[in-house]
Amino acid sequence: MTPPKSDEVRLVFFGPGYGESILVHVGNGIWVIVDSCLDDSRQPAALGYLRSIGVDPSVAVKAIIASHWHDDHIKGMAAQLEVCQSASFTLSSALQNKEFVAFLVAHDNQPETKLDLGGTEMLKCLRLLRSAKRQPRYAGVDRLVCVWEDGTLAHGQRVELLALSPSDAMYTDFMIRIGSLLSGGLTGKPKKRLVDPGKNDLSIATLLTVGQSAILLGADVEEHGKTAYGWSNIVECRRGRNPKAKLYKVAHHGSIGAHLDEIWSEILIDGPLSVITPWRLGGNQLPTADDVARICERSESVFLTGSQAESPKKRYERDVLKLVDHANVNLRSNILKSGHVSVTLNGATGETAVVEIHGGAKKL
C-alpha cells in the first residue's frame, strides 16, 4: 500500500463483519475519518492504515465524524480522537436518552451513571475534548461538516463534506424527549413515557463533493416511509440537486430496511460503484443474498469489505480448541477477517483511477 498523491482523492472502507469505518483523503495529505472499528490487532483500523503508509494521524487527520453511537461504529473512537489532536469532532445533533445523560455527565459534573457501550465511548470522547479545550460540532440536515475552497488543494477543486441527516423532525423529537426526561429531574420519573428511537434513526449520512463529483456515505440511515424522517427526508432535500454521487457506501450494511428506490434515482448516478460493509452478530448477518442481488442489479460494480471467516485458532486458546476437538464439535468462526476496499480518484476530473481490495474484502 502506498499513500495517495496530493492531487488524488482516496476513500478507504473498513468492515470486518462487526464494525465499520471510512477514511477519506481529500488532497494535500489531509484526511477525514468517519466512525471507528477495530482491526485484527484490536486497534482502530483507520489509524493502522495511516501508519502503514507512513502518515502521522496526529497531524494529518483534520476531522473525525461519529455517525451514531452503535457499538459497531464506535469501537476505538476515543483512541482515535486522542491520537488525532488536529482533528475537529462532529456528532449527531439528536441523541438517545442515555447519550444525552453521557453529555450531562461530561459537561455538568453529574454523578456517574450506568451507560451502554455507545454512551460510555461518547463520554470518553467528550471528556477528551473538554480536557483539550476542543469544541465538538453537531450535524444536522444540510450542515457543512468541513470544506476546502477552490484552489486550496493540489487538484484545484472545492471539497465539501455535507451532513444529510438527522432531519429537523428528528431533532425536534429529541428536544421533546429530553424535555420529558428533565421534567421529573434526572433521578425522578418523566411526566410521560416516550420511546427512545433506534440509534440508526439518529445516524449522520454525508455527501462528499469534489468539484462536480460526489460520493454518498450512507452510514446506518434507514427508511420508515415518513417524509420528515430517514431516507425519504434526505431524498426530498436532495431532489433536483447536483452533482449526483458516483460512489455509494451502502446504508446499514445493505439491508432492505435502508433501501429506497429514490436513493438510486435522485441521489446516485445510473450504475454507481457500491461498497457494502457486512454485519454479523450471533446467527444474524447482513447483507442477505437478496440484498446483494438488489444492490448488484443497480450498480456497475459492488465490493464487500469482508467475506472470509477468521480462523477460530486466533480467537481461542490451544487447550480450548483441544477440548472442542475431543468433543467432536465443528467450530466455525462468525467473525470475518479484517479487510478494506480502497478507491482512488483523480481529484481534478473525478475519474476513478484504481480500486484495490485487501484482506477479506472481495468484488461481488
Description:
An eight-stranded mixed beta sheet has the order 6-5-4-3-2-1-16-17. It has helices at residues 45-52, 57-60, 71-74, 77-83, 97-107, 117-131, 168-183, 230-238, 261-267, 289-298, 318-326, and strands at 8-14, 21-27, 30-34, 61-66, 88-92, 137-139, 143-148, 159-163, 206-210, 213-217, 245-249, 268-276, 279-281, 284-286, 301-304, 339-346, 352-359, 362-363. Helices cover 27% and strands 26% of the residues. It contains eleven helices and 18 strands. A hairpin with a 2-residue loop joins strand 13 and strand 14 (284-286). The chain is of the alpha/beta class. The relative contact order is 0.14.
Q: What are the defining features of this structure?
A:
364 residues, alpha/beta, eight-stranded mixed sheet, 11 helices, globular
Largest sheet: 8 strands, mixed
C-alpha termini separation? 22 Å
Trace the largest sheet across and list its strands.
Answer: 6-5-4-3-2-1-16-17
The succession of helices and strands, N to C, reads: EEEHHEHHEHHEEEHEEHEHEEEHEHEEE
Give the uncertain stretches in residue-range form.
190-194
Number of helices: 11
What percent strand?
Answer: 25-35%
Structural class: alpha/beta
**Mean of pLDDT:** 88
Counted beta strands = 18
The radius of gyration is 21 Å
Shape: globular
Fraction of residues in helices? 25-40%
Give a short synopsis of this structure.
With 364 residues, this protein is α/β, with parallel strands linked by helices. The chain has helices at residues 45-52, 57-60, 71-74, 77-83, 97-107, 117-131, 168-183, 230-238, 261-267, 289-298, 318-326; strands spanning 8-14, 21-27, 30-34, 61-66, 88-92, 137-139, 143-148, 159-163, 206-210, 213-217, 245-249, 268-276, 279-281, 284-286, 301-304, 339-346, 352-359, 362-363.
